[in-house]
Here is the input.
Amino acid sequence: MIRPHRWDGRALYLIDQRRLPHEEVWVPCRTAREVAGAIRDMVVRGAPAIGVAAAYGLALEARRLAASADPAALDDVVRALEEAAEVLTAARPTAVNLAWAVQRLRRLWRDAGSALMTPASLADRLAREAEAVDAEDVDMNRAIARHGSPLLAGVTGVLTHCNTGGLATAGIGTALGVIAAAAAGGGLHVYATETRPYLQGARLTAWELVKQGIPATLVTDGAAGYLMRTGRVQAVITGADRIAANGDVANKIGTYTLAVLAWAHGIPFYVAAPRSTIDPATPSGDHIQIEMRPPEEVTHWQGRPVAPEGIAVLNPAFDVTPAALVTAIITDVGVARPPYERSLAALVQAAGATAPAVSGGGSRA
Ligand code: MRU
Here is the structure.
């Protein structure tokens, strides 16, 4: 299984996704600020993966603080952890998994009642919780693949966008996990978009597909309409960074375009995501903050300019696909169909919600 991180209890090692597929370099992180920097700079990316990294970031910070703290100084440690939690949450605003994981660990020091806790015991509890967030994502990925793969029965060509595989999660991936499970039966060909400007598709998804031996073709983002019109593709499946209560889906820039194209060609458009990506506190996509990335990601490639100096650039990292264009949302607890207000709420409730409500986080309000 391809994993974006390794954890040894003292450090979090992240595979530097900026250098893939050419080099496999592992970056050690020992503080929450180092983890936040790695998330901001895209050493690690993908909604579930940055949530897991943030959880380990808080565990590392607690351990570091406990090592030098007076055993009675729990309040000071908690204050410092609150600051670290803010820094981590602010690293990237759109993917709710980040705020979700931070909130989940924060509950341990906010709700647990600190009377019997010491900095050392709090650090242990945070480490165990981060490991649980990691392990649960592995299980949720498997469940998503199980629920989603039947939807691709009979499909011979599927289009996917960005990277939603092992590198973007703790497990086998979301949309790419579904694809891998469906491809195991044979007869499925995957079309992966390059995913401008950061090339998660060309660099990361293509790398994973080749490594896993899944029949696949890399295409430019602009080729999607051609693929649908010529019948090469009969379904689209992507991941998500945040799913609002009404089923609107924030995902990598270009996802909305693919959904409109799929609708125009009568092709199903599926979204695969764990429960940690569903944000019941965000009523619709209009409330989702879209991260704007640096202009250099568009004007330069590997430090070399590809556009004239002086040109203005807009570089939104994500867009919102309205629920009306989404055929189904594949989660770890089942497949939701429209109307999503009802189906998503019912699925999450039936499974016993894991998602602590995230207030603020990526919300625009
Ligand atoms: O900017 P990125 O690379 O973090 O964006 C990632 C995506 O948009 C993925 O499609 C999404 O996080 C789902 S990953 C399972």
About this structure: The domain at 5-142 is CATH 1.20.120.420 (Four Helix Bundle (Hemerythrin (Met), subunit A)). The pocket of MRU is lined by residues 45-48, 95, 162, 164, 168-169, 174, 200, 238-241, 251-252, 317 (CB under 6 Å).
